[in-house]
Amino acid sequence: MPVTEIVTTAPSPAFYLAGAAYIAASVFYLSSLGPIPAWVKRAARLAVVCAFIAHGIDIGWRGVEHVHPGTSVREALGFLSWIFVGSYLLVARREGLFVLGTFVAPLALVVLAAARLSPSGQAVAGLTSLGRLHIASATIGLAILLLATVVSTIYLMQQRNLKHKNFDGVLFKASASLETLELLSKRLIAIGFPIFTVSMILGAIWAAQLREGFDRVEWPISAITWLTYGSLVVGRQLGGVRGRKAALLTLVGFLSALLVLAIYLVRRAGGM
Q: Which domain holds residue 241?
């Protein structure tokens, strides 16, 4: 596929504000796991909300400069981080899910920093509206699936604490029940998987329009991702996949999706 130099722009002031707020939120969330005053939890929530707002302003700033989330994988990562945090804010209002912020804030910071500070590399030539829709839908779907992966990770940690009767652990005391975590992961995948499915269909149509073959390594890996989440959704409906098995499948699915993202990033950075 032909390539061309990507249009890029310097990080906006809002990016640095978002980064500072994410750092503050990470510190507050980690501190809130211990016996601390209630204001620390309120400060953590406020910091992540401020980070989310500043992050959104940074995306808008870049859009004005014609560098929007559909421009490249690099820009899509910044958008993924923002959707990831927004999804967390929607579910964090539920009692017992505050602990998610301990994972979400640092992860959002790392992904945003990688998106803004990594080399711009090159972009695909002939990026059509269909291509932008493919990138946008894939980004939204993966952001929701990433949150499901975080929830499943906490589930596995909680299950391990129960197995070893570690009832005094900080995470055990701060987290929700296994039933709540599994239900949340199930709902997130029920939302994220159809969006990811749409993105794969759009990507296949886009590739066909560009007369690009399906022999690139990311296609079979993407298929593995889809099959993993698809088997999880079907397995849950049939009642045979739940608990630890469902959590592990969630992690495997997202790891394969992460590998696809890494391939795209390396390819664009190297101009391949």
A: 3-270
